[in-house]
Amino acid sequence: MSLSATTSRMLACKGAPAELRRRAGTTGTFGTDSCRAFITSYSPDQLVGQVRQGDARAVVGAAYPSLGGPEPHDQLVQDGKLWTIMGAKERRVRGVLAGYDLWLRGTGTADDRRGNRAETEGGALGVTGGGSRIAVA
């Protein structure tokens, strides 16, 4: 079985629907491509160089008809979480493109990325969305 077929099977079983987004110039308009992505965390021993705690890695398939392959500063959206692509490496065997390995970093504030978290407003205590954490300003 080829690496391309193996990558496709893995993404069909373990991946989830995602969307690759590329900003059009300096506008707020994005070109998009649907894909399947399998996202995992880096282990502590892999946090070297510019890779930070909270970064993730992903495998995505090779088919991107409208955008071409993913590039740094493109975005990947999966399950409502927005990731910025910090780096992308082609997965090739004997010249055949099988997919891409991506280095991802979450975007927005920490609370935006984590979702259901405690929030404060004007120094008051607040718990949002049934969360169990309380924040004091």
From TrEMBL:
Compositional bias (Gly residues) spans?
123-137
Basic and acidic residues bias: start-end ranges: 110-120
UniProt-annotated stretches for the region Disordered: 109-137
Q: Which protein, by its recorded name, is this?
A: Uncharacterized protein
